[in-house]
Amino acid sequence: MDQRPTAAELAHPIALALGGNWRPGPVLHGARELTHAATLTHLDGRQLHLSERFDDPDHLHIRGLFPATDYAFRRGETDSIRVATDEAADSIAALISGDFIARQQEVHQRVQEHNGQQAKARQAVEGHARTVAALLPGARTRIEGTTAYLHIDLDPGSVRIGIDSDTVNIVLSDAPPIIADAVVYAVSRFLPHIETPEEEFGHLDEEFDL
């Protein structure tokens, strides 16, 4: 009985059948190339992932391979194609070239747009954090995603500030009200696009983790 081709062996003929804009590539585990997985990369950066699954022998699964992201994928956006590994490369390419590749292109564009928006939001938050930290001696800054956290140790107490887009949370532990007023003033004065009501003060919240 003839041995069926592996995913790595199928990648090259499928890429040829798809046309000159796709290139086959390996999937590595350390320095070792896997035989049961491979990639197809388009000249515009889009990628497809080909794999054989241990629980579904003699079949190839093809899905979109997207950049690292926290984009919330919708139903159907990560669907895959399942074909027998002895299917002709031309037939597999025809399945890919139909609605599947058009749908993957749309999802890839959404992911790129989302990542671009997140990068801009992170850059803006980093700028806000630097502005506030420069006004508060001893402030330590940490960035997680699109949120900035500032921590100031006082004697006694501490101040913690969370900046997320146009929202600022100010949390005080055992700090006098005059410190709360000063921090709120610094935020509202030097981040003018963030509205802080006149009656707003820093508040004590033991469970707020920054």
UniProtKB/TrEMBL annotation:
Q: What is this protein called?
A: Uncharacterized protein
Q: Which organism does this sequence originate in?
A: Kitasatospora nipponensis
